[in-house]
Queue: 2 jobs
Job 1
Amino acid sequence: MITQIIYKALLASFILVLSLVVAMYSTLIERKVAGWFQDRHGPNRAGPWGLLQPLADGLKLFFKEEFMPASADKFLYILGPSLTMFVALLTSAAIPWGPDIVINGVVYPMQVADVNIGILYVFAILSIGVYGIMIGGWASNNKYALLGAVRASSQMISYELAMSLSIITIVMMSGSLSMREIVAQQHGFHWNILYQPLGFLIFLVCAFAETNRAPFDLPECETELVGGYHTEYSSMKLGFYLFAEYINMFISGAVMATLFLGGYHFPGIDKLGLSPNVFAFVSFMVLFTKITFFGFIYMWIRWTLPRFRYDQLMKLGWKSLIPLAILNVVITGVVILLNQ
Amino acid sequence: MFTQYIFHFLSVMALFSAVMVLASKKPIHSVLFLTMTFFAIAGHYVLLNAQFLAVVHVIVYAGAIMVLFLFTVMLLNLNKDERSPKPLWVNIMAFIAGGMLMLTLIGIFRGYDIQSLQDPMSTQIGLVKNLGKILYHDYLIPFELSSVLFLTAMVGAVLLGKKEQI
């Protein structure tokens, strides 16, 4: 019992550190990718290939002057970025990061919390994720920040609907709400993306809107709103908002890989014949590769597509994605019924 | 023993934030305290082994309804309490009416024997599998009827939101 608790605590801290490090280096990779797309070098002064750039950036943010608008709601102004960061780190608990590992004959699952409603847990966290942005934007007492916060909330609520509708088909096919069970059913190459390509596409588009990434980054649209919801933030509070976006990218990539790309499964998984712990490590690296792939897609699209207009965004969400998602649910239901 | 501590903590949190909903000066603070109350209640559901209900409670109330509340309050920018002070007799009437409701509630719950409740850990009714079976086998018609009711409300809202006359 005690060893299980210690193991869970270790796993949770490992995932926490992993998310933070990945988010840190995503900022560098993002700028490198941007440089590549725009035919320039990107950051390359701090350390070899600019590897120390994230550290320099973090240090700079820490030492910047802490500024708070005189008319701001003090408590809520601080609560906003803290809440955003806290919520961004919560989701990783429900994701199965790999197959079980065995130490001294005792089996340890590579998942912090195997709740039987894992998917709903992810959605609950997603739906409260908007609070940090709304509170921060309102507490700044700035019209641009408020507009950004209002945009963020309506955007996130709108795209949450299509997102949950696209997940319903996965739940219908697997008959379970547990992330572990859903991954187990995609064993080998039975990935959900092969059975639910439309659902995957809808989920991917919605994920961009939920993480406030380009082309849907209207809450922080510089051309209209100065800086959006974090206009009045400086120093590490701004850093938290920016950092949380990269953590959200990482976690949403992990959720997409888990639900649609078979989690830690890969073709030929049964033919390796490795010992359980090495196998767990290989599987974890496979999952990590998939997440990295999604991270690259995020950056690829950011530096390729221009930003949507707000009415286009709403039109896409309500008039295209939701009807498509409902159609997908109906088709899946009919196919399941016919196959029974 | 440990669950009892959590229960006390959640109860205090729920009652405190419920009182603060009424006591806060700014409407935004009231909305946020109401959200906190919902989270405390969701915690109670988890203690009752009803994880599905807890998560749905968070998704629906904290994630959707309260965000819309917050949205409206922000858009209207109700920073200060700008309502005119009410006359004394309204306050007295409100106090009497509220007090009578409270007396009724106390009267109801005094009669309850709390010990007779079933142990939630043994019934497992709050788990999604059992709940789904009951909803779709025993209570299928009420369930479908309530979903039609929700659809009606949605269509009505769209109709009200339309600008041109129909």
Job 2
Amino acid sequence: MKIIRFDDWADPVPPVRREVLSATPELDEGKPPVLFVPGFGHGAWAFAEFWLEHAAGRGFPAHAVSLRGHGGSGDTPGASLRAYAHDVVQAAASLPRQAVLVGHGAGALVVERALARYPARAGVLAAPVLGGWPTFGAALRRNPGGTLPAVFGGRLRLSRRQLFSREVPDAVARGYTGRLGRASARAQWQLLLHRAPEPAVGDPPVLVVGSPDDRVVPASALTRAARRYGGAPLLFPGMGHDLMLDARWREPIDAILDWLEKGGS
Amino acid sequence: MTTSTDHDSATLWRDGRPVYDRGETVCVVGAGPSGLVAIKNLREHGFGVDCYERETGVGGGWNWRHDRSPVYGSAHLISSKPFTQYPDFPMPDDWPDYPHHSQVLSYLERYADHFDLRPHIWFGTEVVKVEPADGLRWDVTTRSTGGYGAERTHRYAAVVVANGHNWSPNLPAYEGLDDFKGRVVHSSAYKDPAELRGKRVLVVGGGNTGCDIAVEAAQHASRCWHSTRRGYWYAPKYLLGRPADQVNDAILRLRLPLRTRQWLLQRMLRLAVGDLGRFGLRRPDHKVFETHPIVNSQLIYHVGHGGIAPVPDIVRFRQYSVELNDGTEVEPDVVVAATGYRPRFEFLAPEALAATTEGRPRLHLHAFSRRHPTLAVAGLVESDSGILPLVHWQTVAIARWLRLREAAPQRAGEFWAGTVAKETDRPWTGAKVKDTPRHWFEVSHVDYLRALQKMIDGLAGVRA
């Protein structure tokens, strides 16, 4: 654990206006709030589609934050992973009770960093894009036209076939991909090159969920990520990368909430 | 959550009184900033916690409703947010660089609610006695605040004292003070500049509080004299358009030698603030970092407007005037003594903290009793940054130490003998600070946190 933090002291992350979408249960059952963190290109809207209401329906106060430069949040130039993690910690600390952090895609990479700065009740990494060269190789093979420009600071474009299973009608899928924005060039590069995250504070349980048919995150990466936290991934075959927007969105969120109800272990 | 099991567990006795055994539970004294973070970190490490708080709310001195609170209406932080907040619970982005004291209180209240700490706090209960018991455990005697009701004694596995050190006013024994006909108040009783309106005011003390009150007197009183013992360095709140402490840390991270840093910062202050002698202030008789930092952008401005007349130390009080050590006399209506506070641990025998006759506790890292492995003090530091981050890591170290003791007593014993018991008192300051009670607990945040880092790593190493 690193307690000398000159970055945080001498060069704090600049503040920004943040979009947080929420759905809260009608009756407070004392369940912990869940904060969803979208991946690169996505905004809080991706969770507002189905997951927020569903989680609230099951008694969990549910919130989704848009990272800076995404969705309805403000932007600062040259946003880094550290700035994104700051956004997540700020959103979590603003909730009335200790929150569960759920990161999707590259949002999971951000959540790993946020866990080192905020003692979450639990962490969930959904279809985690934790970066590194193998992920880059896979993306380059499957979608060279969308991946290559990102190397030069352009926008990383994910195709609808990477993000969704064939069960999602084309028009709907096109609607979603049309809403995608972009992460900063710096953060995109940090997908490839970044330091390993500092250990999570407060020793929270961490769950990894994903799909073996995800065309962004290979199954081996899911296994590797889960093993880091001493477990195995929960798998939902047949789903695309965007678990929260795919046709069978209900299954992963139910599994996550079941896991939380059992105390997350 | 732990619940009281008083009704069924009075199996122990001490001097004919029943003692209720609380098992492995840890006792925290005080629910101010240090107590709250102690509860949170002990809970995070799996301990049951009983915290006793004499007041009816959290926040300690930062809660202006508390009768011992030293805050005054206009008090703002003097360390910027990154140095003030708990490292795992940041203050909101939309708060200013230097929040107001009421924001600090709401921050502490939100912290208590966010981590659900209130169920572990017994409000309106003061600690009367903390005595060692068999097996390195502690008997803690409490009663309702104000002395009502019966005393009760509970036995705990460990005690973390977080009773604060800025609540018992220190008023020097000036000659002739009793005969002085004007009003003398300690800064702890000063709340609002309306008290000074139209009066001739003498503010005593060059600390941050003294400077703040002198600035308020300059704006509201008819005259203001500001008496200090020596010349100080006055750091502005902003340097180069950034909070000054952030600039200082940008320099610190370069790991330059102390002398170079002193030269650099003195150079910057000279450029930003200028020659203090020109304002009639005494020039500092020491290098920067050798006294507790004073952060005030307005003092010199008001000296320049003639609102504040800097004067030297007080020699004696007369019936209607105060004599200063340059031979002059001033005639104030009100004297505000911003002369600081004394640490007090009435519920503990002085030997427990190895206190000197002056009352200065001698603890490892200002936190760990060398004699009692299950007794620690949280928050007994004065720092060149905010204190909350330091107490956070102190209490993490305390929790990890107590965990290790429980899990591997023998290796814990070796660790204790090898580090805590052996290490002599060290100043955790970069520079050689002035040897006054003001600087008993002075630390530099980087040096001190490095030492804590070493201890936390050491504990993890023993554990592995």
